Hints:
Radius of gyration: 19 Å
Shape: globular
Order of helices and strands: HHHHHHHH
Structural class: mainly alpha
Helix content: over 70%
Oligomer: single chain
Amino acid sequence: HDNLKLYLKEFFKNPLIIALIAGMILSFLPSFGWIENVFKSTASMVGATASPVALIALGAFLSLQSHHIPLSLRAAPAVLKLFAFPLLIFLIFKKFGQPLNHTSISTFLAGMPTAVSTFVIAKKFGIDQKLVADSLLITTALSVVTLSTLLYLIL
């Protein structure tokens, strides 16, 4: 019971969760004029810095760590993310008779590399940061080939 309280407290202190909840609340509020434009402009500028800062943190982490994780363990998340997940999405969309453009777009999006926010979340919660960082690096590098191949197959 105490662990659940602690977990929920940490969960709701996560900036990603706070931003999600704030965005949902704000989407239901009526427009409030020029203040809304100032808020949107400021939030947009701050939001634009999130990915570059996360990439700098990832780069610093990778440069300071020695990685002694077996290649097979580092490759597993990349294979699942870049090959198995798009295939699964394709098969599900085909099974349920979705239009070709919906199937193609969803399959392509499923084949995108691991998001940098995954590293930020792993670091925040103390999850295996080395494995997540390696997965992010490998999926990003391989996605040049896999996304090009997916585009060729889709188009």
